[in-house]
Design a protein that fits this description.
heterodimer; A: mainly alpha; two-stranded antiparallel sheet; 62% helix; 1% strand; B: mainly alpha
């Protein structure tokens, strides 16, 4: 019994000493603040092959660690950029030598060099890279390079080809090259049937909103992770909002043409019973009616900003 | 044969007494903690990462056991001077060495088996908590039996490392044995590079030496099929069998040389 008491006393003493040490550290940090935290905007090791050597066969685990770091880097930079507006952008740009997400491509390159079959690093990474600032690095060229690297490791991955086509279509507005990639993807074993019609449609019509919808629906269906699925769902809602805006614009234009002064609010439109209520976007925020008579998505909307579409993209025929 | 089995059993019991199997608790805690944390950090790659982590931890934990217990198998008996009483009994030196080796191999086999069960348990939980649509997108099933391939070959690799540690411990100090075993382990992981050495050196002598080293050093990289298994890439059965046979032959070679050295060693 005395030994038990002594043991308990020892444990309590140890806990008290650790707490005391923590308190002393807190006091010291307050009185003598240390140097600023070193920026994360640099890589200690930038060579994938060297890292592969240093991993001594545990490349997969090293790839996982770099993947986690990539996610954290992307998340924190995105938060910094979107949370602080333009100030955040310039701050982050300053950190990253003038380019937001400067480490994104090198981190993804390291991850995929350590594990060349890291499927999600290619697909997710390409989205991070292609999306314009502040949601991504705004580098569709790097996104395509990453996916092409993935194709070197897995030449039959139709998903990577579809993604390359998608980047050409959506972020480079190059529908011809996009169609070529969709066609190439459709010829791969296991590729879904609709890729062939997507390729033909993209080539024939140079892209339209229906094709975009089909693409995002396909991404939603083939998404391995919730984030991708949610992003695709958001894009689909944005396309819905674009359709809504076109329809509403036609109504407003028609009323203006008939000589009814619509004004800056929806009240006049609702009063004439053309609409039952103030129109809201798929996210639930009312659309804006500008003084110049243009219908726009509200900047307060969860879907704001709407994507810029390929030039030939327009409302469904 | 009976003496060898008895020595092996005693080595296993001693490792249990020395709390070597406590590493299993650490392994389980690591996996369970990681399965919770990783879900928050990895954007849906939790099952892949748990597999990577589980298989890598199996290998690393096993490596430390193989090296640090392996180097002490003989030297501890010499340090304690219990080697004299052992050798005065009707036990041949090769029996002593084989028994020691088999005992540690048994400890590693038990360790790896329990780790495999723990890994499958954590994966089963993750599969259970994942919606089927997400699970369909995985490269390989969550409870993929192919994981056993990777664990099996890890065991063969550790058997080779144990033999290396035992071999060095028959003529060297524990510290030096550990250093040499680790060095040989690292060299073994990269030995495949020696094969293509002639492409980067001009000297034909260096190229021949590198090629000779390639055949002499253990090629440990072939025991690593973790990447294939985690990504659902089939590993041919024939390749696994040949790799296991290669490992067994290398172990036999090391034990033969270790026995020769140990038989000639003078303990006076």
């Amino acid at each position: 019994m005395p030994s038990k008491v002594a043991g308990l006393a020892g444990v309590l003493a140890a806990v008290a000493l650790v707490a005391l040490a923590g308190t002393v550290q807190l006091v010291r940090e307050r009185r003598y603040p240390g140097p600023p935290v070193v920026s994360e905007e640099r890589l200690t090791l930038a060579s994938g092959p060297l890292l592969k050597r240093l991993a001594v066969g545990y490349d997969m685990l090293a790839a996982d660690l770099y993947w986690i770091r990539t996610i954290q880097y992307y998340g924190s930079t995105k938060l910094q950029l979107s949370g602080q507006g333009s100030t955040g952008l310039s701050a982050a740009s300053g950190q990253a030598k003038g380019t937001p997400y400067a480490l994104l491509a090198p981190l993804l390159d390291l991850t995929t060099t350590l594990d060349p079959h890291f499927n999600i690093a290619y697909r997710f990474g390409a989205i991070f890279l292609a999306e314009p600032v502040p949601a991504g690095a705004g580098r569709p060229d790097l996104a395509i390079a990453l996916l092409e690297k993935g194709l070197k490791a897995r030449a039959d991955k139709w998903e990577y080809m579809q993604d390359i086509g998608f980047v050409h279509y959506w972020w480079r507005q190059d529908t011809k090259t996009a169609a070529e990639w969709f066609d190439r993807a459709s010829r791969m074993p296991g590729a879904p049937w609709w890729l062939r019609s997507l390729a033909a449609n993209t080539l024939a019509q140079g892209g339209d909103r229906r094709s975009s919808r089909l693409m995002w629906e396909s991404i939603r269906e083939s998404a391995e992770i919730d984030w991708l699925r949610r992003d695709a769902e958001r894009r689909l809602l944005q396309l819905q909002a674009l359709d809504d805006i076109d329809a509403l614009q036609r109504i407003v234009d028609e009323l203006n043409k008939r000589g009814f002064a619509v004004g800056e609010t929806w009240d006049a439109v609702v009063e004439r019973r053309v609409l039952r209520a103030v129109p809201v976007d798929p996210g639930g925020t009312p659309y804006e009616l500008r003084p110049d008579g243009r219908v726009r998505l509200s900047p307060k909307s969860s879907l704001f900003p709407l994507p810029s579409e390929p030039q030939s993209l327009g409302p469904p025929s | 044969m009976n003496a060898t089995a008895l020595i092996a059993w005693n080595v296993f019991r001693e490792s249990v007494r020395d709390k070597v199997l406590y590493n299993l608790v650490l392994f389980a805690v690591l996996l369970m903690g990681a399965s919770y944390l990783i879900g928050q950090l990895t954007a849906g790659q939790d099952v892949k990462i748990i597999k990577d982590l589980g298989l890598a931890a199996t290998s690393v934990f096993g490596l430390f056991i193989a090296v640090f217990i392996g180097i002490g198998l003989v030297s501890k008996e010499v340090e304690r001077r219990s080697i004299y009483s052992l050798l005065s009994k009707p036990i041949e030196r090769h029996q002593l060495l084989l028994g020691k080796y088999a005992g540690l191999a048994l400890t590693l086999a038990v360790n790896l088996s329990v780790m495999a069960v723990a890994l499958y348990a954590v994966l089963a939980y993750m599969v259970w908590t994942t919606d089927p649509q997400t699970a369909q997108a995985w490269d390989a099933p969550g409870l993929d039996p192919a994981l056993l391939n990777a664990i099996g070959l890890t065991f063969v690799e550790l058997a080779v490392v144990t033999a290396m540690a035992l071999f060095f411990s028959t003529f060297s100090t524990p510290m030096l044995s550990a250093a040499m075993t680790f060095a040989l382990f690292v060299a073994g992981r990269f030995s495949a590079d020696l094969r293509n050495f002639h492409e980067i050196v001009e000297s034909p002598v260096a190229a021949i030496m590198a090629r000779a080293l390639y055949w002499v050093l253990p090629n440990l990289s072939q025991f690593d099929v973790r990447a294939q298994v985690v990504h659902g890439i089939p590993v041919p059965v024939g390749s696994c069998v040949l790799t296991a046979v290669y490992g067994a032959l290398y172990v036999a070679a090391l034990l033969v040389v270790a026995t020769l050295i140990f038989s000639r060693r003078d303990f006076k």
